[in-house]
Amino acid sequence: MNKKQNSSHFFAWWVFIASCLISLVGFGLIVNTIGLFFEPISKSFHVGRASVALMTTLQNAAAAITLLFAGKIMTKLNLRWLLTFCFTAIGISILSLSVAQSLTHFYIAWIIIGICQPIAITLSIPVLLGNWFNEKLGTVMGIALGVSAFGGTIFNPIIGDIITNFGWRGGFICEGLLILGILVPTAFFLREKPNKKHHAYGKVKNIPEKVLETTGISLKAALKTPVFYALAFAMLALQFVSGSVQHISGHITSQGLPLTIGASVVSGVMLGAAAGKISIGFMLDRFNTRLTLLIYSLFGLLGWSGEIFFKTSLPLIASAFILGLGQGVCLVALPYLIREEFGAKDYSTILSVINMAGAFAMSASVYLNGLLFDTTGSYNFGWAINSAAFALSFIALFLTLKKQTTSQGLEESID
């Protein structure tokens, strides 16, 4: 019997592994290494960093617009083919940048990436894991999303070395081939939802899987609750923080330290984020939600403050690790809490709408931090904003989160 049960859960664990790969390459490579390209592209085209950073601003703006309807698209179309198409488009777009002759090419390519990114990377992991895991969701989501930080730790030194030795064009060739070689096959072999033969992992007090898919509240009902706006504000504030991570290597080089130190500091952020995302998922499954959020919000506040005051490599790397721990709030705790607060019924749509606020904030953050640097010659004001974002988002969530568990909410909605 146990053997049969383990076999029926095989696809749940395959989806978990696939989610880890999407996180490793999708977040770890595409999102977390782009800051390494800003300075060499700026020098190559003789423009300011704000002009180069505009490509990621456009990317995130396109992502924000796509998020308006991405959740609905994911419920209407076959997710396997949809993800395969999106990763193919992203890989080809990045590969094309190796022959770019103007900033316009960068802007167009990153708009295409921005259109595909919400479905392929931002929403796919929490939606897939939410479909396949009724138990240990916080833990598996934390591990899968935490892998992105390991990806950043691995890929930042590799891409930094390739840029140093072969130029930024070589860096884009490497990134494009990795996406096409890893993520496209991964998406092709995915399965979207459990069925009679392949079951989700765990049950919620013997509630059937078919019933679980329809429990919770709709987007329309969610819009009437204070916690929806608290979650949206927290996503907006903390995605603004996430956008500024792309400028950390520039912050380090602006202080006269070499790019290799900048890459090491970024790797410190990624390592901290890995530890933060994995541990916050574990803690959310087992401990008080408000206490967990307080601890990780303090990590974010203290870490960004350290980036303002420290000027040498080791303290900068240490504070980067600490601020990385705080990243778990945005990428793990918020998707988890959205599922906990509103249930499975309209999860992808609610998550999509709340992520839209974050995408607009991230698009503004990358550009505004570049503009602040061009204007003042320092990133310190931006880092102070990041510290405040952690404090304010915690206060908003503390005041609005409900105390009941998902299973209690499910039983009430079924009754």
UniProtKB/TrEMBL annotation:
Q: Where are the transmembrane segments?
A: 12-38, 50-69, 81-100, 106-128, 140-160, 166-190, 227-249, 261-284, 291-310, 316-338, 350-369, 381-401
Q: How does it sit in the membrane?
A: Multi-pass membrane protein
InterPro entries for this protein: MFS (IPR011701), MFS_dom (IPR020846), MFS_trans_sf (IPR036259), Proton-linked_MCT (IPR050327)
Name the PANTHER family on file.
MONOCARBOXYLATE MFS PERMEASE (PTHR11360:SF290), MONOCARBOXYLATE TRANSPORTER (PTHR11360)
Domain Major facilitator superfamily (MFS) profile, residue spans: 16-405
Q: Does the keyword Glycosyltransferase apply?
A: no
Q: What do the Gene Ontology cellular component annotations say? A: plasma membrane
Q: Where is the signal peptide?
A: none
Q: Print the keywords alphabetically.
A: Membrane, Transmembrane, Transmembrane helix, Transport
Entry protein name? Permease of the major facilitator superfamily
Which GO molecular-function terms appear in the entry? transmembrane transporter activity
**One Pfam family of this chain:** MFS_1
Instruction: Write out the annotated subcellular location.
Output: Cell membrane
